[in-house]
From TrEMBL:
UniProtKB keywords: Membrane, Transmembrane, Transmembrane helix
Transmembrane segments: 33-53, 109-132, 138-160, 167-184, 316-335, 355-377, 384-405, 411-427, 434-451, 471-488
Protein name: Putative tricarboxylic transport membrane protein
Location of the DUF112 domain: 20-438
Originating species: Aureimonas phyllosphaerae
Lineage, broadest ranks: Bacteria, Pseudomonadati, Pseudomonadota, Alphaproteobacteria, Hyphomicrobiales
Superkingdom of origin: Bacteria
Pfam families: TctA (PF01970)
Length: 499
């Protein structure tokens, strides 16, 4: 019952005119960047961080969440009409959605994606509202050793989940952890790795790293491989609305997609890619029309899109309750919380209930806004695909530089931004994931503080990490998550040699 009352109060907060305006701007921006290939919600939120540092914290975070949800909606448009997934989670949607568009059924494909996203987003947000308080009650009893174990688990799972190999993910994470050690040590007051530069005494700004790696790096990477003859979107033919048969074939995949997306998204090693592939494989097995798969089966669009959006709500569970980001956008949103002096975790629900429950309630409102915006305005979103890439990314470069200078007017900060931009370009060029670096910078100092606190309480005995059941369990899971990819790869090589 407490959750019902808290959610009711959250709706009062979310329905304030200023917060409604933030939510509207967020979903519009999110849909726009979801439609444009190569620009995702993580990049957009990173760009807005330095611009919004003086705005209302609650409204800004509502806008960031709206961008996250909107990006999931908009990503289906390019996947279906252009066969170019804006996000890795939209890859599966392109398999059947683009085939439907080529056979003249682009309208129903977009409709089942939008309605499925609405259904999944609403159910998953209900799950977030009622699961989050239960996790908070568990997390309140955590000691510093438990938090350290949890953060080490987050480091390893994020590094293993993102990128083409665990080793590259761990390398990116190590880069972020190294940056997190720069600045004045909070315990001893000594400067660490500042190289005599006074501006580095406060450490590396998360916003500068995020904007540099995501925005500048992406712009440079796109410029380096710009295609002179980009693929043109497929025009929508016939009716946009679904037939009775389409509804009949879509509603079960929508619900099954929620069943895959929300629980996996809520795991520390979650993400949207795994549930979308699981949903597609399940629908292919359960379909009464298996012959249509590979040629435009509507179930292959409905299920993965529902799983995609449900995982977005699931990702917010560990972010809000434990302060653990499990996706690139969640990592940037965590930086947004910290920008306003807020630390997601159990105490956030006690210290800032208006902000938390207003955010959760705004997600319901954002879902309604998105389904209203996506279907009638689909023609407008398609026209956005005609924007020339050089104009788009030149604007991103200018906006990124202006935002960074506005939040921290320093030539050193601008130089650091440019350096991170080139590092982001080379990380993309050589297929190193970016999200682990941002997670390392954000969570690294926190893990350092929790480890030191644990050692202080045990008078320097590191065995306290293994003597407590919670931290021992988490570190054991971490060891399995770290070793499993290498063991599996070794077994594959062994089997190939035998064959």
């Amino acid at each position: 019952m407490d959750s019902f009352f808290a959610l009711g109060h959250g709706f009062l907060v979310a329905l304030e005119p200023s917060n409604l305006l933030f939510a509207t701007v967020g979903v519009l921006l999110g849909t726009l960047v979801g439609v444009l290939p190569g620009i995702g919600p993580a990049l957009t939120v990173a760009l807005l961080l330095p611009v919004t540092f003086k705005l209302d914290p609650g409204g800004s975070i509502i806008m960031f969440a709206g961008i996250y949800y909107g990006g999931m909606y908009g990503g289906s448009t390019t996947s279906i009409l252009l066969n170019t997934p804006g996000e890795s989670a939209s890859v599966v949607t392109a398999l059947e959605g683009n085939k439907m568009a080529r056979s003249g059924r682009g309208g129903p494909a977009l409709a089942t994606a939008a309605i499925g996203s609405f259904v999944a987003g609403t159910i998953a947000t209900i799950g977030l509202a009622f699961l989050a308080p239960l996790l908070v009650k568990i997390a309140v009893g955590f000691g510093p050793w438990d938090y350290f174990g949890l953060m080490v688990l987050a480091f390893v799972t994020v590094a293993a989940t993102f990128g083409s190999s665990p080793l590259r993910g761990l390398t990116s994470l190590a880069f972020g952890l190294l940056l997190g050690l720069m600045g004045i040590d909070q315990l001893t007051g000594q400067a660490r790795m500042t190289f005599g530069v006074p501006q580095l005494l406060d450490g590396i700004e998360v916003t500068t790293l995020a904007v540099g790696l995501f925005a500048i790096g992406e712009a440079l990477y796109v410029a380096s491989r710009h295609l002179h003859n980009p693929e043109k979107p497929i025009p929508i033919k016939g009716s946009l609305w679904m037939t009775r048969e389409d509804w009949k074939r879509s509603w079960k995949p929508w619900l099954r997609g929620v069943g895959f997306g929300f629980p996996i998204g809520a795991l520390p090693a979650g993400g949207a890619e795994i549930p979308t592939f699981l949903s597609y494989a399940t629908e292919r097995k359960l379909s009464k029309h298996p012959e249509e798969f590979g040629r435009g089966a509507i179930e292959g669009v409905a299920g993965p899109e529902a799983a995609n959006n449900a995982s977005a709500a699931g990702t917010l569970v560990p972010l809000l309750t434990l302060g653990l980001p499990t996706s690139a956008t969640a990592a940037i949103m965590l930086a947004g919380f910290q920008q306003y002096g807020l630390q997601p975790g159990p105490l956030l629900f006690a210290n800032s209930p208006d902000l938390v429950w207003g955010l959760i309630a705004s997600l319901f409102i954002a879902n309604v806004m998105l389904v209203i915006l996506n279907l009638p305005l689909i023609g407008l979103w398609v026209r956005l695909l005609a924007i020339p890439m050089p104009w788009l990314y030149a604007g991103i470069l200018v906006f990124a530089a202006m935002g960074t200078v506005a939040s921290n007017p320093s030539a050193v900060e601008l130089a650091i931004l440019v350096v991170f931009g080139f590092i982001g370009f080379f990380m993309r060029r050589y297929d190193y994931p970016i999200a682990p670096a941002v997670v390392g910078l954000i969570l690294g100092p926190m893990a350092d503080a929790q480890l030191r606190r644990s050692l202080q309480m045990s008078l320097g005995d590191p065995m306290i990490l293994l003597e407590n059941p919670g931290s021992a369990t988490l570190l054991g899971i971490t060891a399995l998550a770290l070793l499993a990819p290498f063991v599996l790869k070794g077994l594959e090589r062994f089997q190939m040699q035998e064959d």
